[in-house]
Amino acid sequence: MKTLNAVHAFRHALKPLGAALLLASTQTLAAVAYVSNEKDDTLSLIDLDSQTVIETIDVGERPRGIIFSKDMKYLYICASDSDTVQVMDLSNHQIITELPSGEDPEQFALHPNNRFLYIANEDDALVTVVDTQSKEVIAQIDVGVEPEGMAVSPDGKWAINTSETTNMLHWIDTKTHTLVDNTLVDQRPRHVEFSDDGSRVWASSEIGGTVSVIDTDSRQIIEKLSFKIRGVHPDKVQPVGIKLTADGKYAFVALGPANHVAVVDAKTYEVLDYLLVGRRVWHLAFNEDQSQLLTTNGVSGDVSVVDIADLKVTKSIKVGRYPWGVVVKP
Amino acid sequence: MSHLDGTLSLPASAYWHCFCGILKREYLRFINQRSRFLSALVRPLLWLIVFAAGFRAALGIAIIEPYETYITYEVYIAPGLCCMILLFNGMQSSLSMVYDREMGSMRVLLMSPLPRQFLLLSRLLSIAIISLLQVYAFLAIALLVGVEPPLAGYITVLPALVLVAVMLGALGLFISSRIRQLENFAGVMNFVIFPMFFLSSALYPLWKMQESSEWLYWLCRINPFSHAVELVRHALYLKLDTESLLVTAAATAVFSLLAVTGFNPQKNQKPTR
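Above: the input entities. Below: the structure tokens describing the complete assembly.
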């Protein structure tokens, strides 16, 4: 009994030490960016403190869209050519399971309930809804031709899909899983992004060269942005990825083969600047405190880092071939 | 003859006084020739604003040292244009040397009891210091077209600029010791300034040169001006390019030696026939 007590006391004494160690380790643990390399079938992991690639992990074929689960335990990976969504355990970087995604999943979005995954199936003109817990398909919704972009509103009410050939945003009611409305936008809509308060939707049109800002309540376009970069042919201006800062100050738009990211005033919709990054810039991600923006540059095979306070590109980091998606783990 | 014996025993203040005199003369020459100052500034600005606008899309396809990311063409050529200012000033000083010789004012300078090497090196340094004013003026204007090196870079680039200025000044001095008459300066333009500038990394990265011609690439590689440009480029972005530093320093030493030993004031006398 005495020894047991002693052990107990010893453990007790160690507790604050352990807590301190844990705290120290979380403080020194740098944020890590996960980048999907479409051509290499890998993920590149970038340490954002040292700005170097610290690990490269093999995953399924042609990884494109990637997102974290809300609890930061898992990473979902659209392995397009493997026709599946892979689930990676973030504690050990093992693929622990695969979800039935339908064919050729490219982009997806996770509902705030951390359960329902909305997946765009490009070849089948479908949006597949998968329950990540039961691993079952709970709905398939017919949408336009070549569905691509996916987003779920912050309140979880709406799921929006974009179809590249039909040129529409499809509004899906997440309660009934039915198509409720469509909004026509410019040619080849590729990506949709909700503002943090959910009142606006930003949608990029790759061929149209525009970004439409849509009011969520009326589902009508309230503003259309176009871009013009000195010295770059207008045909090369192909908006894809969009990110909006939480403070509502900026919107960043990746302009594809124009090799620039547009900085837009999110209140006045005025284009403030164009930042030179690598070739064919595709998708974007913020770090946790939104002091940095990362861009995936497909053709040049690197990730550019933008300092948001200065609006300057500070570094470009080589990753695998054709980096596509990027997410940052704090 | 007393000054010959007394050369070594002259106090340090005499050297300083002499250097200040030479610097002041260069300064007066500089402000009295306002057109020269303007042309020294307009020339690189034309390249930066007009030429670079035409070439804008040509670059930005690869990341090269010392840059951390993709850059515009303006950013790329700015260090080369800084060196261009130093190159023209170095050569122009050689012109003034010929002029001085023809007008006989050089003889006045050489009457100083101080060693000739000191006089010549003082001149080189004076020209370098005057040139630096122009380089910084150029860099200030370059800010307007988005050439924004880190703030500390403006300080770290200073020693690199001084070294390059002395190297090019020494080269100019050496050349001037070989020129008999003022008219030959046009030849200097053709055979020294243009090849040195175009066969360097000032306007295009050398890997681009290598893609089109291997032997042109090697000509650029052995051109000390390439190394001078790279030294300045790296210093401006807080990096040290050791190879360039060694080559530039060695070239400075060689040119200075040639300039000092090759300088013969007797040559300034018109050939007597």
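Note for the figure: Chain A touches chain B through 17 residues (CB under 8 Å).
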